[in-house]
Design brief:
With 429 residues, the protein is an alpha+beta fold. The chain contains 14 helices and 19 strands. Helix 8 (251-263) runs antiparallel to helix 11 and helix 13 (388-395) packs across helix 14 (399-411).
């Protein structure tokens, strides 16, 4: 008998045996013999019952997740001596780790030859990926020493329970009773941040201010919105005796853009969410492009494509979002009465929403519009060029009224008429 990758000998029970069990469970399984010398000769165990009890208690109490279902203990007689044979299979919830050390190299061991070695961080991440899949928020958090001081107060202020059972329901705690990455995102130890850059003018030439917000995503949301609000100035105008206050940026559009940046980013990457503030616009850049199979047109129509479904569910329960898929259409709707519209740019790994400062582009007041005129403008915004019969059918109006409304919109400079006769079409300016 020789020690190798799947076999280890111990003269007697010692506390370090748990490292061997972790290593076997994380690698290809193995057999631990207690009562065997290093040279493979039997020395035996005097009290096998006491040894087995101590071994089983140690394995149950000191290794996470529970590995006992993959272990089997029995007594064998070798050279007329009682030897404890402890068999360990490869576990299905890897990485297994020493409870007091956590999911870190000093707590996670793998088998290398006839010895136990601390697993590298990349090896740990690979084990998590193999057992949890590619879903970041449902994977086990590398940090299991999490606190939720801010989240608990946030839930409490809204009179929503946030106990152990709620954490399981919301999937902050996985089926293995370990914290998930979703828990990490909501914890005080969240490693992801929101960074701000404020520029002087309309280019990235001169910085005016930089800011970075950390902690629970809920805290980051509150801090980030308060910071943005400092730059959302109010302009007041008088129409007759009435005073009308209007922000540089529609409040609802800012809120939705910020929530979109937090809910839909890919937290598998370490880069921060970046918000850049210029004199004429605010840009929200989020790591993570569109989910495969969906297009920009899909999400603009309100198709719900959730990368972080569990995080979105938490935000829904907290009433931070009203429904899935309405954020981007709502942002566009906030700018219906403004000449300059938000823009959306998408690359393979990033998503950018740009909100224009309405005060900058308010030099020419938008003519007042009736409901039919607004309906036609919205229709042309969505469909591009359309003929008069097509417009008439969509707004359910008579031919005479439609022609009159189209003529008025052309005179106001809001739409353009092209072609002649039956080939006449209308489009937004």
């Amino acid at each position: 008998m020789l020690e190798n990758k799947n076999t280890e000998f111990k003269r007697e029970y010692i506390d370090d045996i748990k490292k061997t069990v972790v290593a076997f469970a994380n690698t290809d399984g193995g057999v631990l013999y207690i009562g065997i010398n290093d040279d493979g000769t039997a020395c035996g165990v005097d009290n096998t019952d006491a040894c087995i009890l101590k071994l089983n208690n140690s394995i149950r109490d000191s290794i996470k997740p529970d590995v006992s279902m993959f272990c089997n203990t029995k007594v064998e007689i070798i050279d007329n001596k009682n030897v404890v044979k402890f068999e360990v299979q490869q576990g299905t919830a890897r990485p297994y780790y020493i409870a007091g050390k956590g999911i870190r190299p000093e707590g996670v061991y793998v088998r290398q030859g006839a010895s136990n070695a601390p697993a590298s961080e990349s090896a740990i991440l690979n084990m998590i990926k193999e057992t949890s899949g590619d879903n970041y928020e449902e994977s086990r958090s590398l940090n299991q020493q999490l606190t939720f001081n801010y989240a608990e107060k946030y839930f409490s202020d809204r009179k929503i329970a946030f106990g152990e059972q709620q954490k399981k329901t919301l999937k902050l705690i996985g089926t293995d009773n370990n914290y998930t990455n979703l828990a990490l995102l909501l914890s005080d130890q969240c490693v992801h941040t929101i960074r701000f850059a404020v520029f002087d003018g309309e280019s990235k030439t001169t910085f005016k201010d930089r800011k970075e917000f950390s902690g629970s995503l809920l805290k980051q949301l509150e801090d980030a919105y308060a910071y943005i609000d400092m730059f959302n100035h109010i302009k007041s105008e008088f129409v007759g005796l009435n005073r009308i206050d209007e922000h540089d940026y529609p409040v609802e559009a800012l809120r939705e853009a910020l929530l979109n940046a937090v809910v839909h980013r890919d937290y598998g990457f370490s880069a921060s969410t970046l918000i850049s503030i210029f004199d004429n616009r605010i840009e929200f850049v989020t790591v993570g492009g569109l989910i495969k199979g969906f297009s920009k047109n899909d999400i603009m129509l309100g198709v719900s494509v959730l990368r972080n479904r569990n995080l979105a569910e938490v935000f829904y329960r907290l009433k931070l979002i009203e429904a899935y898929g309405i954020g981007l259409p709502k942002i566009q709707e906030c700018y219906n009465q403004h000449q300059t519209k938000p823009t959306i740019e998408i690359s393979d790994n990033a998503f950018k929403i740009t909100l224009p400062n309405t005060s900058v582009y308010r030099s020419e007041p938008t003519p007042s519009l009736n409901q039919r005129e607004r309906d036609i403008l919205s229709l042309l915004e969505t469909n591009g060029e359309m003929t008069r019969p097509e417009i008439q059918k969509n707004i359910s109006s008579s031919q005479t009224t439609t022609i009159s409304t189209l003529r008025t919109l052309v005179e106001k400079g809001l739409i353009k008429k092209t072609g002649k006769g039956s080939n006449t079409k209308y489009k937004k300016e």
